[in-house]
Amino acid sequence: MKDEMDILREMGTISAGQGSIALSEIIGRKINLKVPALTFVSGTDILNRFRENQIVVSILGNLLTGLEGKILFLLDEKSAYKLIDMCYGRKPDEKQCGVFTEMGMSLMKEVGNVVISSFVGALSILLKSLIIPSIPTLVNGPIKQILNMILSSDDEYVLFIETTFEEPQQNITGCFYLVLTPQTVQFIQTACKKMLENINQS
Which residues, 6 or more positions from 35, have their beta carbon under 8 angstroms from its beta carbon? Predict the structure, then answer.
């Protein structure tokens, strides 16, 4: 799937560019969103990226049309607070209370929605299919419990996309997961192969 993954990585770069523009407009400050890594992983691999009982903040959603799958945007708790501070323009050395306010939770949902919508929009263009995500839900708690909410079977594929939020003072890295059935993965592979064939014929 090397060639197909190259297409998906390019799509990730496009979605990051769109997400950067949307985030900057919402927050009123320049924030770059980048995608340094994109690959397929298993549920076990996801767990190995975190301590088993590590507390994380996640934005959950489902794909309603176009593809069958679930979406998870995830940050460890410390990174989530840093991201909120970044969006509010607070300096890294400014001490915060470490409690999510209603405004902070709303901001996290909005940021997660931007990341999800940017990627899903780019995927819609790639597959020439209208893909609509559900309204995102914010959930925080132990990573294992959250992953159990989206991983329902061993034969599911997980597209792992690393996301980095950048500003002059600091960088914050989060994870974006697209959980897909084998049939959906096959559909994406076929679409990528057709795109490659069209490129080679032109």
Answer: 9, 12, 13, 15, 16, 161, 162, 163, 164
